[in-house]
Specification:
The protein is mostly beta strands. Helices cover about 0% and strands about 55% of the residues. The mean pLDDT is about 95.
Protein backbone atom coordinates (compact mmCIF):
# COMPACT_ATOMS: atom_id res chain seq x y z
CA UNK A 1 0.00 0.00 0.00
CA UNK A 2 1.41 3.33 -1.09
CA UNK A 3 1.31 6.16 1.42
CA UNK A 4 2.61 9.70 1.14
CA UNK A 5 2.61 11.89 4.21
CA UNK A 6 3.31 15.61 3.98
CA UNK A 7 4.49 17.81 6.82
CA UNK A 8 5.93 21.25 7.34
CA UNK A 9 3.04 23.47 6.37
CA UNK A 10 1.97 26.41 8.47
CA UNK A 11 1.51 30.14 8.69
CA UNK A 12 4.31 32.41 7.51
CA UNK A 13 4.63 36.09 6.78
CA UNK A 14 5.22 37.64 3.39
CA UNK A 15 8.79 36.98 2.32
CA UNK A 16 9.25 34.10 4.72
CA UNK A 17 10.32 30.52 4.09
CA UNK A 18 8.97 27.05 4.69
CA UNK A 19 10.18 23.57 3.84
CA UNK A 20 7.63 20.88 3.13
CA UNK A 21 8.52 17.23 3.53
CA UNK A 22 6.86 14.17 2.07
CA UNK A 23 7.73 10.74 3.35
CA UNK A 24 6.76 7.80 1.18
CA UNK A 25 6.11 4.17 1.97
CA UNK A 26 5.09 1.35 -0.33
CA UNK A 27 6.84 2.96 -3.29
CA UNK A 28 10.37 4.06 -4.08
CA UNK A 29 10.50 7.74 -4.94
CA UNK A 30 13.75 7.41 -6.87
CA UNK A 31 11.97 5.27 -9.46
CA UNK A 32 8.79 7.37 -9.56
CA UNK A 33 7.92 10.58 -11.32
CA UNK A 34 7.35 12.87 -8.37
CA UNK A 35 5.68 16.21 -8.00
CA UNK A 36 4.34 18.87 -5.70
CA UNK A 37 0.93 20.32 -6.47
CA UNK A 38 -1.22 22.89 -4.75
CA UNK A 39 -4.87 23.77 -4.62
CA UNK A 40 -6.90 26.71 -3.45
CA UNK A 41 -10.47 25.85 -2.49
CA UNK A 42 -12.75 26.31 -5.47
CA UNK A 43 -9.90 26.21 -7.94
CA UNK A 44 -8.16 23.48 -9.88
CA UNK A 45 -5.12 21.77 -8.49
CA UNK A 46 -2.00 23.12 -10.15
CA UNK A 47 1.43 21.65 -10.68
CA UNK A 48 4.12 23.45 -8.71
CA UNK A 49 7.17 21.33 -9.46
CA UNK A 50 7.99 17.92 -10.88
CA UNK A 51 11.00 15.62 -10.99
CA UNK A 52 11.75 12.77 -13.34
CA UNK A 53 13.31 9.49 -12.27
CA UNK A 54 16.64 10.88 -13.44
CA UNK A 55 16.26 13.92 -11.25
CA UNK A 56 15.42 16.50 -13.90
CA UNK A 57 13.20 19.18 -12.38
CA UNK A 58 10.61 21.55 -13.76
CA UNK A 59 8.89 24.40 -11.99
CA UNK A 60 5.79 26.44 -12.58
CA UNK A 61 6.69 29.94 -13.76
CA UNK A 62 5.09 31.40 -10.65
CA UNK A 63 7.60 29.67 -8.34
CA UNK A 64 10.79 29.59 -10.42
CA UNK A 65 13.72 30.99 -8.51
CA UNK A 66 11.87 30.77 -5.20
CA UNK A 67 11.05 27.07 -4.73
CA UNK A 68 13.45 24.14 -4.81
CA UNK A 69 12.38 20.53 -5.18
CA UNK A 70 14.71 17.87 -3.82
CA UNK A 71 14.63 14.20 -3.02
CA UNK A 72 16.52 11.96 -0.57
CA UNK A 73 16.55 8.39 -1.83
CA UNK A 74 17.95 6.97 1.38
CA UNK A 75 15.10 8.46 3.40
CA UNK A 76 12.55 7.94 0.62
CA UNK A 77 11.49 11.51 1.24
CA UNK A 78 11.04 14.53 -0.96
CA UNK A 79 11.13 18.18 -0.03
CA UNK A 80 9.91 21.51 -1.27
CA UNK A 81 11.96 24.44 -0.04
CA UNK A 82 9.89 27.59 -0.43
CA UNK A 83 11.51 31.02 -0.13
CA UNK A 84 10.25 34.56 -0.65
CA UNK A 85 6.72 33.41 -0.04
CA UNK A 86 3.83 35.50 -1.28
CA UNK A 87 0.15 35.57 -0.28
CA UNK A 88 -0.71 33.99 -3.63
CA UNK A 89 1.28 30.91 -2.56
CA UNK A 90 -1.40 30.21 0.04
CA UNK A 91 -2.89 26.79 -0.74
CA UNK A 92 -3.02 23.19 0.29
CA UNK A 93 0.16 21.52 -0.95
CA UNK A 94 0.18 17.89 -2.03
CA UNK A 95 3.07 15.60 -2.85
CA UNK A 96 2.46 13.01 -5.53
CA UNK A 97 4.27 10.02 -6.94
CA UNK A 98 3.58 8.35 -10.25
CA UNK A 99 4.73 4.77 -10.44
CA UNK A 100 6.20 3.43 -13.64
CA UNK A 101 5.31 1.63 -15.84
CA UNK A 102 1.75 1.58 -14.45
CA UNK A 103 1.42 5.39 -14.40
CA UNK A 104 -0.63 5.05 -11.25
CA UNK A 105 -0.55 8.32 -9.30
CA UNK A 106 -0.65 8.56 -5.55
CA UNK A 107 -0.91 11.80 -3.57
CA UNK A 108 -0.73 12.64 0.10
CA UNK A 109 -3.44 14.19 2.20
CA UNK A 110 -2.06 17.69 1.79
CA UNK A 111 -0.60 20.29 4.11
CA UNK A 112 -1.86 23.85 4.44
CA UNK A 113 0.46 26.74 3.67
CA UNK A 114 -0.78 30.22 4.53
CA UNK A 115 1.19 33.36 3.73
CA UNK A 116 0.02 36.52 5.45
CA UNK A 117 0.66 40.00 4.18
Amino acid sequence: QVQLVESGGGLVQLGGSLTLSCRASGTRLSTDVTSWRRQVPGEQRELVASMTTRGARNYADSVKGRFTFSRDGAKNTMYLQMNSLKPEDTAIYYCCAQELPSFQVYCGQGTQVTVSS
